[in-house]
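User: Structure tokens for this complex, please. No commentary.
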Amino acid sequence: SAVISQKPSRDICQRGTSLTIQCQVDSQVTMMFWYRQQPGQSLTLIATANQGSEATYESGFVIDKFPISRPNLTFSTLTVSNMSPEDSSIYLCSVSVGASGNTIYFGEGSWLTVV
Amino acid sequence: AQSVTQPDIHITVSEGASLELRCNYSYGATPYLFWYVQSPGQGLQLLLKYFSGDTLVQGIKGFEAEFKRSQSSFNLRKPSVHWSDAAEYFCAVAGNTPLVFGKGTRLSVIA
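Assistant:
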């Protein structure tokens, strides 16, 4: 398994500001992912954070709005830029581990409220 | 690309009763299937997973799930529900893209 720590766990943000969420894993992992869970909804993949290269974004998500860094195999950040109330969500970091890299574990999430 | 359907948005069961949460997937090959639980105010916890082999998989907290290829299903079961099982349950599938989640089933437990 993997232990994933996210910071901040919760925050209230002003409209128009940006916030960076940190994700730290207790072991080296190849694949890290960022998900968004809007209130009362399921999880939607934002992007795959690639170590040493640009993140791979899913349809509907762009780098200017959600820049991602992946400086090493245990750490990643997601920035939510120029926030609006529609960005109020839980943002979850996840990693894939195991021989086939197919078991996915999640952090506790970062609960953002934009006012 | 793969997809997941959880037909039941909300289920209510009595404490001590049995539980079955439904999950149907769409994927051309053998998928990797997962069930996660999200308690109120918490992140996601992995309950169990299926990759290959025995189609009945055991998970944590007394849960099990059965993979049925003919029905494209991966239903989650528990013989006796506890009040602490009240939560949101997500089925997910991984194939040629990262995890895709169902919309979730909210479980309420009554005395």
